[in-house]
Amino acid sequence: MTVTATGLTPEQKRKAKDGYLVLRDFFTLEDAQTLRTRARELLEGFDLESHPKTKFSTGEEVDHVGDDYFLNSGDKVRFFFEETRAEGAFDNEGNLKVDKVCAINKIGHALHELEPAFKELSMRPRVKQVVESMGFEDPRILQSMVIFKQPEIGGRVPPHQDSTFLYTTPLSAMGLWFALEDCTPTNGCMHFVPGSHKTVPVYKRFVRKPGNVGTTFITLKDGIKEPPEDAYVCEPTPVGSLVLIHGSVLHKSSQNQSNKSRWIYTFHVIEGNAKYAPDNWLQPTPEMPFTKLL
Ligand SMILES: O=C(O)CCC(=O)C(=O)O
């Protein structure tokens, strides 16, 4: 589905009621190449020696995200490794098993401000039109990332709702997810449960612990049954696609089991008029408040 110069068509708006919308050919192959080239320069340029070796996982099983390197990354460009595990980036002694360029899970979280090529795409009139079409009045950008699923080691992203991480009252988060390469069932494309944003409430939150000493999940509602595996719809997306992701829709992606990488760029918007929870993991700073999109 392509998008018109004035935003989403009525049919696209209807389709977005599934909780996600794939917009093919939203940006060009040249755009994707420009962003990939810059992302690769960033990977090649970062200093491994001074890096705290922070790993990244969206799941609850790894206590990875308590450190300052992660918590203070909202206004920086920082690098997060794949989880430690047999098939991951590190061996049991914590040594990198692969080239550092191939060991990074993601870069975040202020590419939309600090990296001109990413900023340019994020602030494009087309992006603004689409976000406005989705009903945002004063959208603010936050939490931008490049997620690399490197061949054979790129990890899975477990089922989650983005509002768990970017909680506002009322709920308002939406993800914008740009395929910088073809995303396929074997290299870790996205899976969604259509309509789950209407049936599964946001039942937990990912917050800073008091005193900013790490992070934890807190439960908002007990006894929520997540949909079974077979409720997930696999959505392969060619390079150039933009996917809009409702903050409450359940989605996930699998491990890259292929020999082809799967690089994407994503950022999120929240409604500027909504109350942003002061214990959300990511907080604005005086130097870098959340970016006004419009
Ligand atoms: O790119 C992926 O594999 C997962 C991204 C995602 O789930 C998100 O940004 O919320």
From TrEMBL:
Pfam families: PhyH. Its cofactor is Fe cation. Keywords: Iron, Metal-binding. The keyword Metal-binding applies. Belongs to the PhyH family. The keyword Oxidoreductase does not apply. Signal peptide: none annotated. This is Fe2OG dioxygenase domain-containing protein. InterPro entries: Phytyl_CoA_dOase-like. It comes from Powellomyces hirtus. GO terms for molecular function: metal ion binding.
